[in-house]
């Protein structure tokens, strides 16, 4: 079984680098690939991205495109961290263009941000199309998608399964640098066109293990 994993930067760098999470993630992925499975992991930027973007905005007026390039640079830094962690199992080159011809030789492929105008979620969708993979696992700092923002509305309800149309209505249609959504608006639109399945999971690695082993799990399935 092959999966794309969109690994949110909020889990890699919530404030500082979360090495206990990375250690658990490393062990889980190694166990998974021992069973003749493969994963392509796309990294997000996390707090590092927003710190640099905020610093740039405090200094002076900056364009959205340049803010996105900061985000892309931080995803690539995080991707290099992941490739180093999986040095023996991962292909040696970090994928920076998810549409390029890819010869996947190892059990793990590591990718990062590509172009301005979207998040690494969109890169995960493009990579899924490129590699012919139909399911993306999105690990993020929320355990499920809600019908409205749970930080603003106490009556927000978690959703176990939703359509792409419903997901688009929740995340909107416009991208802005540093946007924090369960799955970015541009990626949502493209994933819907491709007929992909995206599974939103939180940071609980035992929960992810349950999903990988086809057991009961907590999350949101979008298709």
Structure description:
This protein is of the alpha/beta class and 223 residues long. The protein has one domain: Carbamate kinase, CATH 3.40.1160.10. 42% of the residues lie in helices and 16% in strands. It contains 8 helices and 9 strands. Strands 3-2-1-4-8-9-7 form a 7-stranded mixed beta sheet, sandwiched between helices. Strands 5-6 form a two-stranded antiparallel ribbon. Helix 3 packs antiparallel against helix 4, helix 5 runs parallel beside helix 7 and helix 6 packs antiparallel against helix 7. The longest helix is centred in the middle third of the chain and has 22 residues. The protein is globular. The mean pLDDT is 92.
**What number of domains?**
1
Q: Using only CA atoms, what is the Rg?
A: 16 Å
> CATH topology, what is it called?
Carbamate kinase
Estimate the helix proportion, in percent. Answer: 40-55%
Residue fraction in strands: 15-25%
> How do the strands line up in the largest sheet?
3-2-1-4-8-9-7
Note the total helix count: 8
Number of strands: 9
Average pLDDT level = 92
Report the CATH superfamily.
Acetylglutamate kinase-like
Indicate the overall shape. globular
Q: Could you state the order of secondary-structure elements as H and E? A: EHHEHHEHEEEEHHEHE
Low-confidence stretches: none
CATH class: Alpha Beta
């Amino acid at each position: 079984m092959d999966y794309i994993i969109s690994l949110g930067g909020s889990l890699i760098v919530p404030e500082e680098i979360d090495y206990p999470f990375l250690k658990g993630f490393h062990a889980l992925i190694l166990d998974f690939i021992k069973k003749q499975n493969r994963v392509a992991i796309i990294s997000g930027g996390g707090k590092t991205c927003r710190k640099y973007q905020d610093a740039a905005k405090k200094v002076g007026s900056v364009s959205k495109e340049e803010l996105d390039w900061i985000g892309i640079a931080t995803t690539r830094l995080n991707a290099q961290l992941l490739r180093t962690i999986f040095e023996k199992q991962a292909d040696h080159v970090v994928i920076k263009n998810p549409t390029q011809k890819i010869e996947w030789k190892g059990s793990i492929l590591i990718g990062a941000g590509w172009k301005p105008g979207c998040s690494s979620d969109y890169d995960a969708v493009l990579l899924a199309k490129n590699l012919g993979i139909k399911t993306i696992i999105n690990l993020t700092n929320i355990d499920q998608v809600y019908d409205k923002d749970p930080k603003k509305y106490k009556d927000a309800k978690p959703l176990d399964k939703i359509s792409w149309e419903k997901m688009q209505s929740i995340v909107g249609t416009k991208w802005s640098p540093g946007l924090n959504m369960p799955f970015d608006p541009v990626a949502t639109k493209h994933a819907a066109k491709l007929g992909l399945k995206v599974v939103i999971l939180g940071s609980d690695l035992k929960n992810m293990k349950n999903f990988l082993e086809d057991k009961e799990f907590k999350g949101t399935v979008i298709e």
